[in-house]
TrEMBL record:
Transmembrane parts of this sequence: 15-34, 41-59, 75-91, 103-123, 129-148, 160-178, 184-201
UniProt topology in membrane: Multi-pass membrane protein
Protein name (database record): Uncharacterized membrane protein YeiH
Species of provenance: Deinococcus reticulitermitis
Keyword Disulfide bond: no
Domain named Glycine transporter: residues: 17-90, 103-177
Main location: membrane
Amino acid sequence: MHELAWTPPTLQEGLRVLDLIGILAFALSGALLAVRKRFDLFGVLVLGCVTAVGGGAVRDTLTGQTPPLFLRDEIYLWTALLGSGLAFGFGERLARFERTLSVFDSLGLALFAASGAIGAINFGLGPLGVIFVGMLSGVGGGIIRDLIANEVPEVMYRRDQLYATAAAAGAATVWLLFSHLPPFQAQLSGAALVLLVRWISRRGWVRLPVRRLPGERA
């Protein structure tokens, strides 16, 4: 009887898994915010799914992959619905943990910023284009989430919790490492840097300057 030999996952399979993890993380993030806002079941599912696929839709549109991947492969929408449903079912328990929303949000940000950078590199964009696409891929879903929930997008004002800056740094890391490491490792490295920058900023060790007009309070 022959034993089945284990074969390592291919590059495409690895990137797909990372994308699905990002989808699940962002769906939980958006749906948990909807639960906190007292949305009904439909509203929770919509906000969770829009948050989950928003960044990927931006990435695919900017890199010429139309229609977006989540419309060509419904496993992404099913994953978003799964995450949204989990948040609706267990939202009261999850909402008790103050850091839960931020953890899921940071994970989605990291994975989508890195995958957006990979897509931009494969599309042939230069370093600034890679950084721009990676950043928008990471923050796109969160911006859409906050606007639908009637919140000012955190990316615009939370200088003590670097968000878009972290996504841009992760995308830049992917671009720098892409020619030296396999794409999967470059993507993981970029995502890890995003999480590191977010962690450092949340501890108050670094923040962006704010320009204040004369007469404004500090």
